[in-house]
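User: Reviewer 2 asked us to show a designed sequence for the structure in our supplementary figure. I'm pasting the structure tokens here. Could you produce the per-position amino acids so we can include them in the response letter?
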């Protein structure tokens, strides 16, 4: 099998593939569209991260391809329906970095609630802004609202509960009777109610038409004053300008946002 890898991949994983297949690995190939199209014509499988757009010209060039591997879980850079119509199987790396993302959510929420980072420059300059450094908020007793309750959301819930947080969740494709909720004894909430209750809102949904700008100005305005927003999913899920305005006004107490936002399918 001829495998084409267009972006960075762990060298050990590449070596394992090379032991059984012909592999063309070039992490810079994504930035060379002419060569990418030429090499794609001979590929039986292609492995991408988030920058390679498997659609349009590239999809047409993948005449022999039967497998599209995604080093990540977001599929907004892959025309999944079009790939499947051509007999290509699209395989994301589901769960590969789930714990890392869950830990990041907790770390980001803790950092934003504490707020001590805002005094870094003053401390580095030799001052000690006691009032600012004493005004941070604790995680214990706060409510975490998870928008999306897949594997990452469930891991995040477990970590948050360990810190004494109350966890509520919403998932558009699940209801309160779903095993994911009954197994974890976690409360399912309608999205607007979750947004209004949570001290920390964390987003764990794919970027599709129904989630694009899901957190627009009006929805952000429904959040508790001083609540924080963590988006480890895709940049297009939130309206970044609305977030910036809410931070300036004090409506939001902090935000940690994913930057990855690819063009429409």
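Assistant: Here is a per-position design you can include in the supplement:
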């Amino acid at each position: 099998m001829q495998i084409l890898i267009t972006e960075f991949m762990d060298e050990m994983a590449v070596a394992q593939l090379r032991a059984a297949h012909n592999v063309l690995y070039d992490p810079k190939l994504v930035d060379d569209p002419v060569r990418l199209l030429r090499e794609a014509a001979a590929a039986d499988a292609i492995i991408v991260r988030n920058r390679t757009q498997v659609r349009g010209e590239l999809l047409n060039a993948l005449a022999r391809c039967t497998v599209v591997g995604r080093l990540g879980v977001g599929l907004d850079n892959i025309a999944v329906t079009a790939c499947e119509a051509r007999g290509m199987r699209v395989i994301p790396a589901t769960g590969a970095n789930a714990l890392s993302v869950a830990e990041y959510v907790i770390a980001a929420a803790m950092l934003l609630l504490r707020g001590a980072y805002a005094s870094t420059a003053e401390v580095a300059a030799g001052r000690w802004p006691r009032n600012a450094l004493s005004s941070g908020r604790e995680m214990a007793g706060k409510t975490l609202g998870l928008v999306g309750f897949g594997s990452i959301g469930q891991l995040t819930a477990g970590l948050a509960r360990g810190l004494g947080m109350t966890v509520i969740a919403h998932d558009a494709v699940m209801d309160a009777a779903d095993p994911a909720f009954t197994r974890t004894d976690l409360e399912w909430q309608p999205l607007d109610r979750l947004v209004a209750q949570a001290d920390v809102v964390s987003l764990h949904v794919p970027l599709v038409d129904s989630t694009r700008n899901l957190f627009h100005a009006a929805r952000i305005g429904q959040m508790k004053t001083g609540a924080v927003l963590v988006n480890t999913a895709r940049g297009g899920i939130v309206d970044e300008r609305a977030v910036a305005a809410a931070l300036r006004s004090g409506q939001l107490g902090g935000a940690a946002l994913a930057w990855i936002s690819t063009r429409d399918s």
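For the response letter, you might also mention the following. Confidence is low (pLDDT under 50) at residues 260-265. The CA atoms of residues 162 and 245 lie 33 Å apart.
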